[in-house]
Write a structure and sequence with these properties.
mainly alpha; 9 helices
């Protein structure tokens, strides 16, 4: 492999791919990120085969959309965002499929306590997405990202420090504390969870 490609930063590789669709650069980026993206997917699905399928879909998405990577954040942050959005979208499709199946099974019109519980859980997921949508208006992107990685995706501050490329753990911890404070104010202001 070309030394220039092997020594290039992730951001430089993405630029090379965007300009020339270099197969070598694509291979190198895949080598660097395939395990990481697989683990991110597995964190959402807890299923090895599904995580492998999602990883392949995400790489197709990344290579197709790499010109949209602005370079304003680290490539790893952008790749995580693409992964997260894709996984959440796939999980939402599955929830909808299950909801439809449950509704079709309940043809006699008698309420089923299992269905009611399922609908409540769907409502909570919808609430979370609604809260996060509001949070995007109040909380800066880097703070919100750390908050989501920690509270929704269950990552430790150490893991977040590595993903976001923070110089040290204090940076990620500070972002998390700031986001937590703003999120608390948002919840109080918007009245989420009060019925």
């Amino acid at each position: 492999m070309n030394t220039e490609i092997r020594c290039a930063s992730d951001e430089e590789l993405s630029g090379i791919i965007a300009e020339s669709a270099s197969e070598e650069a694509c291979t190198e980026l895949f080598r660097r990120y395939s395990k990481r993206i697989y683990l991110w997917c597995y964190n959402y699905t807890h299923d090895e085969e599904e995580a492998v399928d999602l990883t392949q879909e995400i790489f197709i998405k990344i290579f197709r959309n790499i010109a949209k990577f602005s370079g304003l954040s680290m490539f790893s942050t952008w790749a995580y965002r693409v992964t997260s959005n894709h996984c959440l979208s796939e999980l939402a499709k599955k929830r909808e499929q299950w909801r439809r199946r449950l509704l079709s099974v309940d043809a006699d019109g008698v309420p089923d306590p299992v269905d009611n519980q399922f609908d409540r859980e769907l409502g909570l997921v919808g609430d979370l997405e609604r809260i996060l949508a509001s949070a995007r208006e109040f909380i800066p992107g880097d703070e919100l990202e750390v908050f989501i990685l920690h509270y929704r995706d269950g990552m430790t501050v150490n893991e977040i420090t590595k993903i976001l490329g923070c110089e040290n753990i204090t940076g990620a911890r500070t972002l998390l504390q700031n986001a937590r404070r703003k999120f608390k104010r948002l919840i109080e202001h918007e009245g989420f969870g009060n019925g």
